[in-house]
Amino acid sequence: MKKTIVALAVMGIGLGAAHAQQVVKLGNAAPLTGTISHLGKDLENGTRMAVETVNAQGGADIGGKKVKFELIGEDDQADPRTGTTVAQRLVDAGVKGVVGHLNSGTSIPASRIYDQGGIPQVSPASTNPKLTQQNFKGVFRTIANDVQQGGALGDFAVKTLGAARVAIVDDRTAYGQGLADETDKAVKAAGAQVVAREFTTDKATDFNAILTKIRAANPDVIFFGGMDAQAGPMLRQIKQLGINAKFMTGDGGCSPEMIKLAGDAINSTTYCSMAGLPIEKMPGGAKFREDYKKRFNGEVQIYAPYAYDAAMAIIKAMEKAGSVEPAKYLPELKASNFDGVTGNVSFDERGDLKEGAVTVYQFKDGNWVAL
Questions:
Q1: Cα–Cα distance between 110 and 112 in angstroms, integer?
Q2: Options 1.25.40.80, 3.40.1390.10, 3.40.50.720, 3.40.50.2300; CATH of 146-274
Q3: Any idea where the domains of the chain sit in the sequence?
Q4: Does domain 2-144+282-345 have CATH number 3.30.1440.10?
Q5: pTM of the model
Q6: Over the stretch 285-331, which tens digit does the pLDDT of each residue have?
Q7: pLDDT one-digit tens code per residue, 99-142
Q8: Sheet harboring 270-274: ordered strands across?
Q9: Nearest to residue 83, comparing CAs of 173, 170, 146?
């Protein structure tokens, strides 16, 4: 009798194990501390929403099994060296895919670590073209790159704003300088002159020296390649110096936080661009914004919808492949073609988004308004 009881107990344990749900780790990397932590948290929140949406439905159906996901979030501090440390930590933790990083300057060095570990990386925010030009098999992005965005910005400055003289400043990060370089090319191609090219850092708060030089060049438009933490104070100092040029920046400054940081210096002569559609024009944008506000009690900053689609691209690829193993689902990730929150998600041979839209915004009535 005792043997029978023991045997049944063992059988019971075996049945429980057979029905236990598999938990798969997904990584997320972004700056969660520092001056742009609000953007990093926004990115992480978008990834978390995707994971929670799938888990709330009972998990993903992968190879005939229901799989739930666990999000492993890491703070890369927007620092290249920390980014590689974080990347190795995620690989060592056994994640099956990574959504991140935010900054091109962290994504590019981290991508080598993921490549060596055989882990696919989908960035919802890194726009520098170099990210997908390294010939790594598992690197993708769900947002337009700087060639597309810089081209649109330069064209807009000359053909729409009528600028003949443009000054360009960048923060010397891979993102800021990359976007500034592409804007510079587009301004010249459109027939205007770049009258000043200055640089600062992504930690600076005092821009008076470079702005004084720019004032002497008398530009019609000042373009800044960098993040809102610098763009806001820079705009205040432009006003203090009495410079009358219009101000333009890219997606790193196209945030609600930029408006707060600029204070009364921001006006209708301030423009920014987003590598994507306005959230209200995204196919799933209205519902996403509503769900985001309900879940996190705040507004979408910039990158959350793209992070959501990045996570869903990985999960959908796993479902199609019937496996959570990167080597098996990577071909399906490359062949992604689905309607996400932000629009159609499909990648070209490099891993860039095929249909990368770019929208230019103007500050008006207290908000960014799509033009």
A1: 5
A2: 3.40.50.2300
A3: 2-144+282-345, 146-274
A4: no
A5: 0.86
A6: 999 999 999 999 999 999 999 999 999 999 999 999 999 999 999 99
A7: 999 999 999 999 999 999 999 999 999 999 999 999 999 999 99
A8: 193-199, 165-170, 221-225, 246-249, 270-274, 359-364, 367-370
A9: 173
